[in-house]
Each structure stands twice: as C-alpha cells, then as structure tokens.
Specification:
This protein is an alpha/beta fold and about 230 residues long. The protein has helices at about 50-55, 80-90, 105-115, 120-130, 145-160, 175-190, 205-210, and strands at about 5-20, 20-35, 40, 65-70, 70-75, 90-95, 165-170, 195-200, 210-215, 220. Helices cover about 30% and strands about 30% of the residues. It has seven helices and ten strands. It binds adenosine-5'-diphosphate (ADP) and magnesium ion. Keywords: ATP-binding, Nucleotide-binding, Transport.
Length: about 230
C-alpha cells in the first residue's frame, strides 16, 4: 500500500519545568509520516527538534496530545510497553555515532540483538552489511573506520531489529560534504524498500534533498513562508 501512515502525532505537547518557569518545547505538533517517506525536520536551535525526535522515537513521554506508532497509541503507555514499541518499530542513528570503538563493525551491529535477546541470523547480517555498503569490513575495529563508515555502522545497527521508522538527529553533522551525499543516497535506497526516515537537522542542503521539509519554530510547526529559515 502506498499511503500507509506509520506515525501520527496530534496536538503533541512536551513541557519542561525549569525552576518556576515552564518551557514549551513542543506546543501542539501535528504530523503524519507515511511508509517509505523521508521527512526532514528543520528549525533553529531550541525549536524543539530533539524533543520531537525523542518523543516519536519513544525515548520520552509527551505531556499531552496523541502519538500513534502504527495502530498503537503510545502517549499513554507505561515505560515497559513503550520499550517494546520502540524495539519493534524504531531505529536510531546519532550524530556522535555512539559506537564502541574497540569492538568490530559486526559486534557493534549485533549489540541491539544481544539486548533484545534475539539470536543472530548470519544471512540477514550479510544482507545488511551489503545494503549499507560495509561488506568485507565486518571484522574491522570501529576505531579504524572513516567517519562515513562509522555512520554506516550506526545505520546498520539501527536497522538490525527491522524497524519501520528510522530516526536520526543531525546524522551528517560530523561528516564531509561528499560523505553526506553518500549517506543521503543510502537513506533513499532504504526508504525505497519501505523504511520511513525522519531526519532532524539544521543543514538546509540535507533537508532540501528529502521529500518533505517540516519547519519547527518555538515548538510549533510553521509554514515555510513564516519560517525564520529562508532558502
Ligand atoms: N531536559 C530539558 N529540561 C528543560 N528544558 C529542556 C530540556 N530539553 C530541552 N529543553 C528546552 O526545550 C526547548 C527545545 O529544545 P530541543 O528540543 O533540544 O531543541 P533543538 O533540538 O531544536 O535545538 C529548548 O528551549 C530547550 O532549552
Ligand atoms: Mg537538537
């Protein structure tokens, strides 16, 4: 099916308390992400990008509103159920990679499987390595990899549990322009296989290369013409 919605946020809010002050990090966000879609979320520093990623990644709970991952309403779930939804649906890719440098590419990719107490399917691992462009590099310790290959390892690790949505916060932040392009190409080929990808970034070039750009400002989605960012 082409227009299957994998994620739907409605009037999503996240408030933080700082002393007596309330910070409205997200203030009523409406968002739908379809299967196979690449969406970028852009906005100035402090606009709520990371907060939104943490919510849709089920790493944190909303203060109010609704968030559906597939058919499940997650806004009201308890931590244990949230963890389950996260493991079954979400993969994360981080700017700082968060890989273990002294472990090999393969060992880093396998980590989530160990946490999920799943056994390792050799065939699948090979397919994954091929898919992300790391074939033949599985035995190299991560500390010897280039930045691009570190991010490929991060992406493979995010995919090992077969998520439906890949969430990335500034995935190309530490990479050279040429490598950024390669990572974007990789995202595109993954999305063509059905994965939905949500990229938070302040990199306009990266955002412009995605199918849809969502502008966040002061915790709200604003139309492009009202955004502080112009291009
Ligand atoms: N844990 C927290 N406690 C208090 N305020 C926070 C916390 N996390 C984020 N904020 C505030 O929420 C707003 C949005 O932050 P964030 O989501 O990190 O924005 P962005 O990723 O776009 O830079 C900012 O004003 C930030 O200071
Ligand atoms: Mg951020």
């Amino acid at each position: 099916m082409q227009d299957k919605i994998v994620l739907e946020a409605a009037n999503l809010k996240k408030y933080y308390h700082r002393g007596s002050e309330i910070v409205k990090a997200l203030d009523g966000v409406e968002l739908k992400i379809k299967e196979s879609e690449i969406v970028s979320i852009i906005g100035p520093s402090g606009s709520g990008k990371t907060t939104l990623m943490n919510l849709i990644g089920c790493l944190d709970k909303a203060s109010a509103g609704s968030l559906k991952i597939g058919d499940t309403e997650v806004a009201s779930l308890e931590e244990n159920d949230l963890i389950k939804i996260r493991r079954e649906n979400i993969g994360f890719v981080f700017q700082r990679f968060y890989l273990i440098p002294t472990l090999t590419v393969r060992e880093n990719i396998e980590l989530p499987l160990i946490f999920a107490k799943k056994s390792i399917n050799e065939k699948k691992l090979l397919v994954l390595l091929e898919e992300v462009g790391l074939k033949g590099k599985e035995r190299i310790q991560v500390k010897y990899l280039s930045g691009g290959d570190k991010q490929r390892t991060g992406i493979a690790r995010a995919l090992v549990n077969d998520p439906k949505i890949l969430i990335t916060d500034e995935p190309t932040g530490k990479l050279e322009t040429e490598v950024k392009g390669q990572i974007l190409e990789l995202f595109k080929s993954l999305s063509e296989k059905g994965l939905s990808i949500c990229i938070a970034t302040h990199d306009l070039e990266l955002a412009q290369a995605t199918q849809r750009i969502i502008h966040l400002q002061d915790g709200k989605i604003v139309p492009r013409e009202k955004s502080d960012l112009y291009y």
